[in-house]
Amino acid sequence: MAHGCHLRKGRHSTPGQIYCITTVTTNRQPLFTDFNTARIAINVLKNQHDKKLFTCLCFVVMPDHLHCLLQLGGKRPLSAVVQQFKSQISKQLGGSLWQRGFR
What we know:
By secondary structure, the chain is α+β, with helices and mostly antiparallel strands. It is built from three helices and three strands; from the N terminus they run αβαββα. The two termini are 15 Å apart.
């Protein structure tokens, strides 16, 4: 069983809880070394924060992954929030970019 699966055991979403999320590109491709690609990812996080889907406390975009410290609102579970921002970034960049899951 992959290490990430162990991290998800017993994880549940709690409104107002703060979570540190890490999500990685497929095959650790360094997509975000390109400034414009990284900017798209940042804008998606900002737009979803502005829409109050979650409160983004801080983030860092690395060449092949991103970290985000976020606080959940009361309406959506953590998995749905992460899936949505990963999906929006993928749509804007034109393809499937992410490994499954997150930590």
